[in-house]
Amino acid sequence: MRVAVFGGTGTVGTHVIEGLTNNGIATTALVRAPGKASALRERGTDVVLGDLEQLNTVAATIEGADAVFLLTANSPSQGAQERDLIDLVASTSGVPIVKLSVVGADLESPLHLARIHAASEAHLRASGVGFVVVQPGWFMQNLSLAAKGIAHDGALRFPIGDGGIAAVDARDVADACVVVLADPQRHLGSTLSVTGARDVTGASMAATLTTVLGRSIEFVDSDRAHFEPLLVSQGYGAEVVEDLVMLYDLIMRHGFLAGPTTSVHEITGRPARSFEAFVRDHASWFVPTT
């Protein structure tokens, strides 16, 4: 079996390729940056250099594949890229597509990103191609945004109040995608919500950080004035910044991302990683540097 992977160098995609490889499934990945290609090749992945704007490189990536993993980066052309890829698969091999979406994807969502994903989901459903949509919750890895403050000030600063969050480890999302990609027919036509098994809050995350790191970490309910410059410093564009501010300061603050599930266990056969396990595995993120 071979899987064509789009978005194989990011937080989720890297683990998807690793999981597929560990399960004896061949992978072909479309990679835009040549510098990232060598690491994939070393792990046994076939690499096509190009990007989603070049349909000839997209076609080369899906050639010979039995399934497609679709994950695209936030960009002004994200929606068009996904539609073009879906149309290309539909007009050629017709193999199943496993699309990584977002929780709350809805054409009426106040979030631009959620509307883009909802439109792509609708296009995928109408394409005639077999599909599985995976909608993950808030990634624990997003704590990297607050890592500097945790490390140097002992403060976890997010504008989320006491809202509950069904946070999920991106590695669990990848593991779920690997299971689905290995046997797409089993989940064909499904939309799978993949979340953690327990809600966390800003205060509970700070308490766990305190326990694991062995020093006091305080949760600080920040505001837009602090959060927006932090996002800009990470290289996000204005539209994404506005979306993320709304996500944290409105949607997460009011608990709209609460509601844990047992989906990771149901799909993979093992429990979801806990927030404590995530912090232990990523403790180096929160170590002060001189």
TrEMBL record:
Q: What Pfam families would the database entry show?
A: NAD_binding_10
Parts of the chain that traverse the membrane: none
Record-annotated NAD(P)-binding domain positions: 7-184
Name-wise, this protein is: Unannotated protein
